[in-house]
Specification:
By secondary structure, the protein is an all-alpha fold. Among the domains are: 6-50, no CATH class; 65-176. 61% of the residues lie in helices and 0% in strands. It contains twelve helices and no strands. It has helices at 11-21, 33-40, 44-50, 65-77, 86-97, 101-117, 125-132, 138-153, 173-194, 198-207, 209-215, 230-252. Helix 4 packs across helix 5, helix 6 packs across helix 7 (125-132) and helix 10 packs across helix 11 (209-215). The longest helix has 23 residues, at 230-252. The chain is extended, with a radius of gyration of 29 Å. This is Transposase.
């Protein structure tokens, strides 16, 4: 419904829904956040008819049964191409998708492409990380980062409307706790890697190259030093010479 004549806003969608409601049969319709935000801008008569009894569908939590069942189906669909333990893949995919299943499909597809580009036929954890930061997943990555930020900060200020639930609901504690712990762990890892010596970093590079690559600080550009002109050099030399002579004269007296 949300794709019906976007230029007319929610007017046509409202007319269609109210016309169907007049038939007399119970009316159930599905809408995403964007459409509900548009419907909430309608007059009170329309909003009372169309938004009075919402049933909100939220992404799965990491500890819920349906998420782990979905992970088992993903492992089966990958046909042994996913060489990661079920518990680990459940956490990694949740971290990179915020539990949104269409994001999972896209991420797994891109992860397999990363594996094939490395001449491998199975997906490893480093492929998931590479897929998450790839250009093909960039749009989803922005959405995931916004959702994680909202969960941690408990504030929806500035978040895109298509990601913000139009109805007031408390975020489930398991989602907040996972997002907060994951962020704290990533910060601690980045600090630890940054504090390693060159020898320690080289050793870690051999054992866990992906861990080092994703946690090294960005290269800091060196500030270019302006070349001193001949005139400035002469002035500095004269100033230094005068200071030296003054110091000698003071010591002699």
């Amino acid at each position: 419904m949300q794709f019906v004549n976007l230029g007319q806003g929610a007017a046509r969608v409202t007319d269609i829904l109210l016309s169907m409601a007049k038939i007399g049969a119970p009316l159930i319709y599905v809408a995403n956040y964007s459409l509900v935000h548009k419907l909430k801008e309608r007059n009170s008569e329309d909003t009372q008819r169309l938004l009075s009894e919402p049933r909100i569908m939220l992404p799965d939590t990491l500890d819920c049964k349906s998420w782990h069942e979905y992970m088992r189906e993903c492992l089966a669909a990958c046909n042994d191409r996913l060489k990661i333990e079920a518990k680990i893949i459940a956490e990694d995919l949740y971290r990179f998708t915020f539990g949104i299943k269409r994001f999972v499909v896209q991420l797994l597809k891109l992860a397999y492409l990363e594996a094939r580009s490395a001449s491998r036929f199975s997906i490893e954890r480093r492929d998931l990380q590479a897929a998450f930061v790839s250009s093909g997943y960039s749009v989803h990555k922005i959405a995931v980062e916004e959702l994680v930020r909202e969960a941690i900060q408990k504030s929806s200020t500035g978040i895109r409307k298509d990601l913000k639930c139009p109805f007031t609901i408390p975020l489930r504690s398991s989602v907040i706790e996972f997002s907060r712990k994951d962020r704290e762990q990533r910060v601690a890892t980045k600090v630890l890697v940054s504090a390693l010596t060159k020898t320690e970093l080289s050793g870690l590079q051999e054992v866990a190259p992906n861990l080092v690559a994703t946690n090294l600080p960005s290269n800091v550009k060196k500030t270019s030093v302006r070349k001193t002109s001949d005139e400035e050099m002469a002035k500095n030399h004269a100033r230094l010479l005068a200071k030296t002579l003054a110091s000698k004269n003071k010591s002699n007296t």
